[in-house]
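Sequence decides. Our protein:
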Amino acid sequence: MDPSPHKSSTAAGDGVVSVPASTDPIPAPNSNSGTVDDQKESLSQIIDSVDRTLGLLHKLYLTVSSFSVASQLPLLQRLNTLVAELDGIQKLAENCNFQIPLEVVNLIDDGKNPDQFTRDVINSFISKNQITKGKTDALKSFRKHLLEELNQAFPDEVMTYKEVRAAAAAAAAEPEAGAGPKCYT
């Protein structure tokens, strides 16, 4: 058991992550949490705790893989430290109010980059936006063509229609007396 605390870092050659092996759990969250800064601080503390937890899990793996009677006490100490660290993460997580899409969690479980989810969502929105824009452009073109054809067949009715539309648009643009602007959904 290495009692010296280390900063979180990855060793260049062996891929081992060294983290502090503190027996103290994460400090309890502040009671005034709820602001964005408090949530960011809690998230930062959770990230640090996850790093420590990963280091503890690696040390547990090494202890278990080469288990002997002499390594029973370090194993129990590391298990207790892991439980305390997980308890601290649970307490800090209560102050973080954010949600992670299940698709992102599944991508991470599959060993893929979660940024792929963001790219897929943005590409999907772009595709749907282009389809919607195409539909609205087609409807505008159809409306224009229809008005031209109707104007040739029924010029008086089209003129009345345009006057009614202009009056309705003007009435909608004017706010009511003493009231703020209207919101139409």
Observations:
- Residues 1-33 have pLDDT under 50 and may be disordered.
- The chain has five helices and two strands.
- Residues 115-153 form the longest helix (39 residues).
